[in-house]
Amino acid sequence: MPDSNPIKIEFIHKITGIIEGNLSNENFGVSELANEIGMSRSNLLRKIKKATNLSASQFIRQIRLKNAMEMLKENDITVSEVSYEVGFGSTSYFVKCFHDHYGYPPGEVAKRALDESDANSVDQLADDPIPEQNKIVRFWEELKRRKVGKVIIIYASVTFILLQLLSVLIEPLYLPQWTMTFVIVLLAIGFPIAVLFSWIFDITPSGIQVTQSLDMEGNVNQGRTNPKKSILFTVIIGVLLVIVAVLVYPKIVDNKNQAELNPELEKSIAVLPFKNDSDDPRNIYITNGLMESILTNLQNIKDLSVISRTSVEKFRTDPKTIPEISKELNVNYFVEGSGQKIDDNILLNIQLIDATTDKHLWAEQYKRDAKDIFELQQEVAIKIANEIQAIITPEEAERIDKIPTNNLVAYDYFLKGLDQFYKGSREGLEEAIPYFEKAIEHDNKFSRAYADIAISYYYLDAMQADKQNSDLINDYADKALLYDSKSPQGLIAKGLYYMNTAENEMAAPYLEKALQYNPNSAMVIRTLSEFYTSYVPNTEKYLEYALKGIQLDIAAHDSTTTSYIYLHVSNAFIQSGFIDEASVYINRSLSYNPENLFSEYVKAYILYAKNRDLDQTKELLINAYNKDVTRLDILQEVGKICYYMRDYESAYQYYNKFLTAKKEYKLDIYKGEDAKIAVVLEKVGKTSEAENLFKAYLEYAENDKSIYKELSLAMYYSYTGDTQKALEHLKLFSQQDNYHYWTMIFVNIDPLVDNLKELPEFQQLMEDIEKKFWKNHERIKVSLEEKKLL
User: Fold this and answer.
1) What does the pLDDT look like over 73-93, one tens digit per residue?
2) 352 pairs with which residues across the strands?
3) Rounded to whole angstroms, what are the CA distances from 329 to 299, 309, 351, 569?
């Protein structure tokens, strides 16, 4: 209902008159309107929004299009001439906006005006309503005569009972989860067929017959029913039903299988690389900066799933279509854009695309002063989110509205540094840091610039054995948080500092808080996945972040890197007891890189989890090791399997090679395996060497800060014969959560616990550990399903 407030009406008339007075000026926009009416830009935006529920730019465009419609109706004028007259510099863009607004192109205006005139004439010849009413009554009587209503009631009742029964029997009968969907589809298909059948046929004592029609007086026609036609019609309906079922069934199963591997994200979006409209290719950093800022603003919104910048970067030069990219990235929406900076103006063209239909949902042209660049980035992000009905919390809106710096020179240096940072190379990092430092020179409270320097130094250190930049990382991270305590990048930087200095427990809260403030950051999710597998083991979090990572970042990499990402997902799945899912992803990993020996030996263990065949596992590991005899990780795995098989002589052959290499290359690796190696050495008569390894293992276990400390000590005291201590430590371990699936599989067959195996206390504790694991497994499964990760 239009607003009847006289003041608002007068305001709308006034700004409408100003816009129409500048109709042919394509550069007349919000800033110019604000100057004409003598009002600040922000005040004008709020007032137009309140009066019309439109943004200022939408209102201006609507006035232009309304005038265009009047011109096209009343004057003999071409579309391109109208486009120019109403201030559109591009005819094609005018045609698109006109079609979006009115639902048809401007070229059809004249024809539609004639059609509307004809329709008005025809409307005057409408039939008298009374005969139509008689037709409705007669049709209702015919429905009752043919017993269609009874069929509908019976069909609905049977459908309800069948679905209730099926929901109860799915689990006891181990029916697949798509069974319910399949039955619902069949029942939906069957409903119109049942109604049609009840209209045409009648069940009589003589069998199924075609229902007799009525003559004009309402009497039943006495013509004979053709039984051949009845049978033929029935056969046709049956065949159609079978054909539909055959076509629908594979699709349901295929969709279910696809969903299991790659869950659909309802509000998933990718911001494709923006095009540089400038003649100077060096200005690409400006359009990249616009893209990055809009992407970052969208990443703040938890209700969205936003694909990482690195995942879309390859499509800058890849000529794939939107549907092809959508299939690869598994997203429903795309943002495309192009822009440039001319003097003190930013020009930006942006559009939102529905990936499923390849149709444009929204498009806009912006021309803003450079000083309004942050407002522009915020406005675009909010517009996109609103268009796809994403929920923006007040806290998220506050983060989106936050301006990183008030100094445009500092921001320009920052964008140049960011462009180098995202090259992902050591050289890029080294070139990025001076630009970030220049940004800080112009704004010494620029939090994001401090954070990105710290992160750059962390990755420079990560490539070196000797950590040289720890103090710099800490200093810049602290300054980032000093000027913005809620900066996701500052929190990431501080977490990376603690990882750099091996103070792992201190890193967790910073990384988790960074994800809270930027829930779609692929960098944070990737870091957390690595953190919870290598730094602070936690199988549940490892799996959750590994799955989130492939949703946001899987397309960013070449086939070799992709293979390792899928390896991590498979490893995360098997650690939490998801054997089938682990099998799927390890096969994916090997399909991307058949030479990935990590994946090959993980697959050997996944197969062992399925069939518990140590001989097969040993054979597969030996095959992997023979492909690269320098692989010490696989070498010790072969020795371990021989150890579990009590084949100590064979185990010694492999372990001896492993120990020799460790000593030669001065490696401090696999300290958790020292007890197993010590047992083997003792069994083959190497007593003194075994004692030294046992001592080293005890020291390692006592200083272990992971959840496996008590289990390691239980294994040690079991082998040394201190049964009581062993059981005490095992009991303490049983109180832990999120331990590996391998714990249940291998502890029971480990020679280190031979002294405990027959004890009822040990058996009860292992039973408790296993029950707790599977209970936790089910909880993780439900949690992942609720988060649409499984």
Assistant:
1) 876 778 888 888 888 877 777
2) 335, 362
3) 16, 12, 19, 17
